[in-house]
Structure formats: C-alpha cells, structure tokens
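User: Second chain of the day. Same drill as before.
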Amino acid sequence: MARVCVYRYDEVDGVPLREVDGWFETDQAKATYPEAVREERSTVRRWRGGRESVTRAVRERLLRTAGDRWVLETALIRRELADRFPGGDRHEFLSDDQAAEWLLRNGHEQAVHRWLSEQPGERGPGRPQIGGRVQVRLGELLDDVDRFAAENGYSRAEAVRALVAIGLGRRKDGPRPA
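Assistant: Same format as last time:
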C-alpha cells in the first residue's frame, strides 16, 4: 500500500510554497491514465547570482482516487536534474474541469464520458401519451366492449375511449351498445 501526500502549490514573492492538501493510496485508485510526456522550461538561480534557463522533461499521469478525486502526478524523467528542480515529483488535486481538459488533451475521450459525463441515456421519441393511464375491471361488460370494437373496427382501447366519450355526451354520432 503506497500512501502519497497530495499538495497545494503556490508561489509568494517568487518563492515556491507547498502545503499538504490530502493523501490517497495509489493501489486503490479506480483508474490511471498514463503518460503524457512534455517539456517544461524553467528559470533557476545559479550559485554566483545569475539565472539560467533550463528545460526539463516530465511525465504526467492522472489518477482517479477511491474517494472520486482526481490527482495529477508529475515526475521528472531525468533524475539528475532533481537537484535543480526542488520538489521533484508532484501530486496535486485537480477539479473535474481540469481533469477533463487533461484527459481530452492526452487522448482519453472515453474516460471523460465514463467519469465526467452527466448525459442521460438516449431514448427514442416513443409513442405520444394520449392521456393518463386508467385501469378498470370491466367484468361482464368486457364481452360487450369487444363486440362493439369488432363491429366498428376499433381496438379494445379505442372502443373503451369511444364508449366513454359517448357515455359522457361528447360524441353523439357514434353507435350505442345494445
């Protein structure tokens, strides 16, 4: 079990600061999205007062913790430069937006859909609702409803709607059951 401290990085008056922001266990990460290798250009101080511009190569990977947080791990590829870049490897929490940007930039579109998409499942248009559903036990009237439906070329549901409309006086031109 490898517990890793996660830091919040800041800079005050040109002095880099880091503060512990939390921790996570790498072996319990839900997902790991590796390696984007990139170059960083930094200016470092020399012993004799001058400044020097140095380029370093870093490897990044993004982890989804067991607590559903995103951690960006940044590591030096060339360890011999570690003395020139204090702090070496970095671990910092990212917001969902920052994680989505990193994932898209590094070709992990499926991960964005898996972890960050809030789109509901697709549904077809379906049949439009005619009205609220009503369940009625017709008992001995069911034979009469079926006969009415057959005589008038209706489905059972259409026959029930027509009979209710006739009974309510909304439809005067339809036949009445015997």
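Strands lie at 3-12, 15-25, 31-45, 51-64, 70-76, 90-94.

User: Great, on to the next one.
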